[in-house]
């Protein structure tokens, strides 16, 4: 197993993020990462960083999603769309093992991050969540200072480097530094909704993830703050892979490179109807159901 794997048995808590070599993905090859000037390459031509193959997820006996096969392109934004209850959030949470925290649940199929099985017995779910960060629907800063919110994850994982520098660069990347640089000791809760969500993005970035999962990150925000988050996502994808769940068709069409349309089958399990480059899904979908959904005829 590579030294930088997700396994808990090779990475001690104390040295998890102090050695920069450990921050490198375990099995990254140059062919997987598009060059930064490759932004014009359609998502369907970009190698995946995450691969779900035949994934089903159960809450007790209830199968919430079934037979999901999605290959998530590196350094692109993938949108998960579909009617409420079709399992978008559930699927998102399987990717960084957040669902592990819900008792009596079960995953079938394979989920790979680079070439590692995310659910292999040696894999440490805490390390998975560091490498695959998450931003939630409602901005949820901790009742702590702006600085301590961003420093929270690195402190937890025993970061021994320049914490001030890491906090600043994370806030810079989240397009929040200019707004907060003179009030880092102020509570994160004192910020506006849009700023709070950018603080949550900075908090996710501070653990140096490769992938950021976003579960309807703009649903509690006004249109201006929503656009700011979308602009931020466009910047972030140069360095991160983003998967976003959104109910907002315009947002999926504007902000994403690839779109996965899910619906609910007769047995109530969510499944993938169609997935393709976003432009294709919105202008020339193959499936009539997709066309009906993106044109607002149902859902
Ligand atoms: P979406 O994000 O598309 O609205 P969800 O993933 O939230 O869909 O929900 C998919 C299905 O799983 C729904 O039937 C929902 O009731 C069920 N579900 C979601 N969370 C839980 C949970 N913690 N326990 C049991 N069932 C759940």
Helix content: 25-40%
* Name of the CATH superfamily of the domain at 73-100 and 126-264 and 271-294: P-loop containing nucleotide triphosphate hydrolases
Which sequence of strands runs across the widest sheet?
6-7-8-3-9-10
Ranges with pLDDT <50 over ≥5 residues? Answer: 9-37
Strand content: 15-25%
User: Which CATH first-tier class of the domain at 73-100 and 126-264 and 271-294 would you pick?
Assistant: Alpha Beta
Mass-distribution shape? globular
* CATH fold type of the domain at 73-100 and 126-264 and 271-294: Rossmann fold
Task: Report on this structure.
- The protein is α/β, with parallel strands linked by helices.
- The chain has a domain at 73-100 and 126-264 and 271-294: P-loop containing nucleotide triphosphate hydrolases (Rossmann fold).
- Helix content is 31%, strand content 23%.
- The protein contains eleven helices and ten strands.
- The protein has helices spanning 20-23, 88-95, 125-131, 146-156, 163-173, 177-180, 193-205, 223-236, 249-255, 278-283, 288-294; strands at 48-59, 62-73, 77-81, 105-113, 116-117, 132-135, 211-215, 241-245, 258-264, 270-277.
- Strand 9 (258-264) and strand 10 (270-277) form a beta hairpin.
- It is globular.
- The N and C termini lie far apart (45 Å).
- It binds adenosine-5'-diphosphate (ADP).
- Adenosine-5'-diphosphate binds at residues 59, 64, 82, 84-90, 102.
């Amino acid at each position: 197993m590579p030294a930088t794997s997700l396994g808990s048995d090779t990475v001690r808590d104390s040295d998890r993020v102090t050695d920069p070599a450990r921050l490198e993905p375990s099995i990254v090859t140059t062919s997987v990462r598009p060059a930064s000037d490759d932004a014009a390459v359609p998502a369907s031509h970009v190698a995946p960083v995450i691969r779900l193959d035949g994934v089903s997820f159960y809450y007790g006996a209830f199968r919430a999603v079934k037979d999901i096969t999605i290959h998530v392109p590196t350094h692109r934004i993938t949108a998960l769309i579909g009617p409420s209850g079709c399992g978008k959030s559930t699927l998102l949470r399987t990717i960084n093992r957040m669902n592990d925290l819900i008792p009596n649940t079960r995953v079938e199929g394979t989920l790979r991050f680079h070439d590692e099985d995310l659910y292999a017995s040696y894999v440490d779910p805490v390390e998975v969540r560091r490498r695959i960060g998450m931003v939630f629907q409602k901005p949820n800063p901790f009742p702590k200072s702006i600085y301590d919110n961003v420093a929270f994850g690195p402190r937890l994982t025993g970061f021994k480097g320049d914490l001030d520098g890491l906090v600043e660069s994370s806030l810079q990347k989240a397009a929040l530094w200019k707004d907060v640089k003179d009030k880092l000791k102020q509570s994160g809760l004192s910020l506006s909704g849009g700023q709070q969500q950018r603080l949550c993005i900075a908090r996710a970035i501070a653990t140096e993830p490769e992938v950021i999962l976003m579960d309807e990150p703009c649903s509690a925000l006004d249109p201006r703050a929503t656009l700011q988050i979308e602009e931020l996502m466009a910047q972030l994808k140069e360095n991160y892979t983003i998967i976003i769940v959104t109910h907002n068709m315009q947002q999926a069409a504007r902000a994403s490179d690839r779109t996965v349309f899910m619906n609910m089958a007769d047995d109530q399990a969510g499944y993938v109807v169609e997935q393709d480059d976003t432009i294709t899904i919105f202008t020339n979908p193959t499936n009539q159901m997709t066309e009906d959904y993106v044109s607002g005829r149902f859902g």
